[in-house]
Design brief:
Elements lengths: L6 E3 L13 H8 L2 E5 L5 E5 L2 H9 L3 E2 L22 H5 L4 H12 L4 H25 L3 E2 H6 L1 H11 L6 H11 L7 H24 L5 H7 L10 H32 L1 H9 L4 H11 L7 E5 L3 E3 L2 E3 L4 E4 L1 H4 L34 H18 L4 E2 L21 E3 L1
Parallel strand pairs: 1-2, 3-9
Antiparallel strand pairs: 2-3, 4-6, 5-11, 6-9, 7-8, 10-11
């Protein structure tokens, strides 16, 4: 399967919710740079090997696709998706401006700050589990715990009302659209989201609180610069989407992976010190992580023996890279004690995930509380009946039915 021979449909479908497509291993062995057709119908090049994905994500010659590039469109909608929205272009995408923006945001997401938030996360998880137990079994762990916990945390950080979370969920889904929503639905949702966030920033400017957006409104960077209103709105929207959608899905997938083979859950019950490495291994082992990261190449460059011409859109599959046998011994096995575990679930390079300390802390907190409160937890459906979320850029399970 060389670059010229076959064009695969991307994302590559998988028959089982927790298993990778068989094509990943074939591509890594025979076709490290593969031609793929995206949901939009446009073509791109897919990289799946660990070293290649890490290199592309870390190389500044591969940039985030923007409106001005002649990049492949990810989805069929002309605008409004997370990869091609005004939101994406309001935040500086490269160079010193991007680094300056990241520095202003990242001090809110340090490991130290997240550790301070952890007791609150655990207390919230306790309350949500109490509610779930009261409603009785079977319960959908994603709806009961996986979704509300990260929403509560990110709303608290941004100073926005948790009561609006159903609207955030819909707005997020339209931004993450691949094939689920029409252009009209996306445009309407985007306009509502922008309007909501703009009004929220006006309110915060009048009465600042102890939250991230209040600080961004009032603070300047090292050069005395402030973020524009458009950048503040885009930052609020971006953090709200990224801060809940991926983690909400990951909580459900992590628990499903651990319960899919009961021995994994029993191992954690017997040794709680494995929680941290188990979370990292769930992030690596996740075969349903979503679309991956698109990058745009402005000049001719060789990757894995294939010369990519300038103007090529490259899709990096971090999930495939995380299952690369050449990078991880026993890559197809879930090893809860795996260390070191240099997975690429949060990307690499200048655009690696800002909120990774937040996601890790939430996942560890949830797992600790579940092990303590529900040691008898098990899936209420066969693993074969788990169903993937379809049509969005983020991977997840539709529901995770459990009993105890």
């Amino acid at each position: 399967m060389s670059q010229g021979e076959q064009v695969l449909i991307y994302p590559i479908p998988s028959d089982a919710a927790l298993e990778p497509p068989v094509e990943w291993a074939q591509l890594q062995r025979k076709c490290p740079v593969a031609r793929v057709t995206l949901p939009s119908g446009d073509e791109a090049s897919l990289v799946t090997r660990y070293e290649d994905v890490k290199r592309v994500l870390s190389d500044p010659r591969f940039t985030r696709p923007t409106h001005v590039d002649d990049a492949a469109r990810i989805s069929d909608n002309e605008s409004g998706g997370v990869f091609n929205s005004e939101m994406a272009t309001a935040i500086p995408q490269s160079g010193e401006a991007h680094q300056r923006w990241r520095r202003m945001i990242s001090k809110w997401f340090t490991v130290k700050r997240m550790a301070a938030l952890r007791p609150g996360m655990e207390a919230m998880a306790e309350r949500l589990i109490d509610d779930m137990l009261e409603r009785g079994r079977p319960a959908d762990l994603k709806a009961s715990l996986g979704f509300p916990l990260p929403v509560w945390v990110i709303c608290d950080l941004l100073g926005v009302p948790d009561a609006d979370r159903d609207r955030f969920a819909y707005w997020s889904d339209t931004l993450l659209n691949l094939t689920r929503y029409t252009q009209a639905q996306i445009d309407t949702a985007q306009a509502e989201f922008v309007q909501y966030m703009a009004a929220h920033i006006i309110a915060k400017r009048a009465e600042p609180g102890e939250d991230l957006l209040s600080e961004l409104i009032t603070n300047t960077d090292a050069d005395g610069g402030r973020l524009s209103d458009a950048t503040l709105v885009a930052t609020g929207m971006g953090l709200l989407v990224a801060g809940h959608e991926t983690t909400a899905n990951m909580i459900g997938k992590m628990v499903a992976m651990l319960l899919a083979d009961r021995r994994r859950w029993e191992l954690l019950l017997a040794d709680r010190s494995l929680v941290r490495t188990a979370v990292e291994e769930a992030l690596r082992f996740d075969a349903n992580a979503g679309f991956g990261m698109p990058r745009y190449l402005g000049e001719d460059l060789e990757v894995a023996g294939t010369v990519l011409p300038g103007g090529t859109t490259v899709v990096c599959s971090m999930a495939a890279a995380n299952r690369d046998e050449s990078a991880f011994e026993g890559a197809g096995d879930m090893d809860l004690g795996r260390s070191p575990n240099l997975h690429l679930a949060f990307g690499a390079g200048a655009h690696s995930c800002l909120g990774q300390a937040l996601a890790r802390t939430e996942l560890q907190a949830v797992l600790e509380v579940l092990l303590r409160r529900l040691p008898s937890l098990e899936l209420a459906v066969p693993v074969a009946d788990l169903r993937r979320v379809e049509g969005l850029a983020v991977g997840g399970l539709r529901e995770v039915l459990v009993r105890w």
